[in-house]
Design goal:
Blueprint lengths: L3 E5 L3 H17 L3 E7 L5 H15 L8 E7 L2 H11 L4 E6 L12 H9 L4 E5 L10 E6 L9 H11 L2 E8 L4 H20 L4 E7 L4 H11 L4 E5 L13 H9 L4 E4 L10
Parallel strand pairs: 1-2, 1-4, 2-3, 4-5, 6-7, 6-9, 7-8, 9-10
Antiparallel strand pairs: 5-10
């Protein structure tokens, strides 16, 4: 169906996710499926009433697309993943809570589980991120893993959609000449790919021997990035069904929206 799925729970974070999804869906001419996951035995009537009221309030923003909703029962991450698979969705969008104090850098467990369960890329957005400004700068970090380039087609699609500039960030994780040659080669391949599809891009290299996450986020902060696109498996990642340490830290610490892609998700949604 090529819908975009958005997780919704009446929080300000999920409301922000709806706004962002409408903007993307209008440009892609994709319908939106809002998914609310209720607890066992929870009354659906007030949920439906409130969702319909809210949907009516944004109906004027829809340009030739539909905003529909479905209520499911069970674990949030599992139900979002199941619905994404049933709808053959392009992407799942979830909002995360911006909290004060120490917890400001930690996002809910449902976001992690949604990313690990989802059959399609997941865009996670903090509720305090201002997405009203243009999506101008997309950071795409590249390391020495073979999977690192697989996120590029989806990132390029986002860039073409919003007329954004992709900021390629070559991450040197070692003094090893072989590792650096690999990174240089992958960056060169991606530059040629972006040139072929006429996607604006710039490139920078950084030494990230101590911490990939810190290096990526420092760069994203320095250019006031609007989005970071990552693979869930990066240097020294875990198994294919778990989020690697790099992705975990990125989701914990980033104040920028994160688009997370697993290697096995690469396919029709990148076209």
């Amino acid at each position: 169906m090529n819908n975009i799925i958005v997780g919704f729970d009446f929080s300000s974070g999920s409301a922000n996710a709806v706004d962002v999804t409408i903007d993307i869906a209008n440009k892609w001419q994709s319908d939106i499926r809002l998914v609310y996951v209720k607890k066992e035995g929870e009354d659906e009537a007030p949920i439906r009433e409130e969702i319909e009221r809210r949907n009516a309030g944004v109906e004027h923003l829809l340009n030739g697309i539909k905003l529909e909703y479905v209520i499911r029962t069970g674990k949030v991450s599992e139900q979002l993943a199941k619905h994404a698979e049933e709808d053959e969705a392009l992407m799942v969008v979830v909002g995360t809570h911006g909290m004060s104090g120490f917890e400001n850098n930690w996002i809910g467990k449902n976001t992690y589980r949604t990313i690990t369960d989802s059959p399609v890329p997941v865009l996670s957005i903090r509720e305090d991120f201002d997405f009203r400004k243009d999506l101008e700068r997309i950071v795409v970090p590249l390391d020495s893993t073979t999977e690192t380039r697989q996120k590029v087609p989806f990132a390029a699609r986002m860039a073409k959609t919003f007329n954004s500039t992709i900021h390629l960030l070559g991450l040197y994780t070692s003094e090893s000449k072989d590792i650096r040659i690999l990174v240089d080669g992958y960056v060169d391949q991606v530059e040629k790919y972006l040139d072929k599809y006429e996607v604006k891009h710039v490139t920078e290299f950084v030494d990230a021997k101590k911490n990939l996450t810190v290096s990526t986020l420092e760069y994203a902060d320095s250019i006031n990035a609007d989005l970071i696109v990552i693979m869930t498996e990066q240097e020294k990642a875990l198994t294919s069904w778990l989020i690697g340490n790099y992705a975990q830290q990125m989701l914990h610490l980033s104040k920028h929206p994160i688009l997370s892609i697993r290697p096995e998700q690469i396919g029709s949604q990148s076209r």
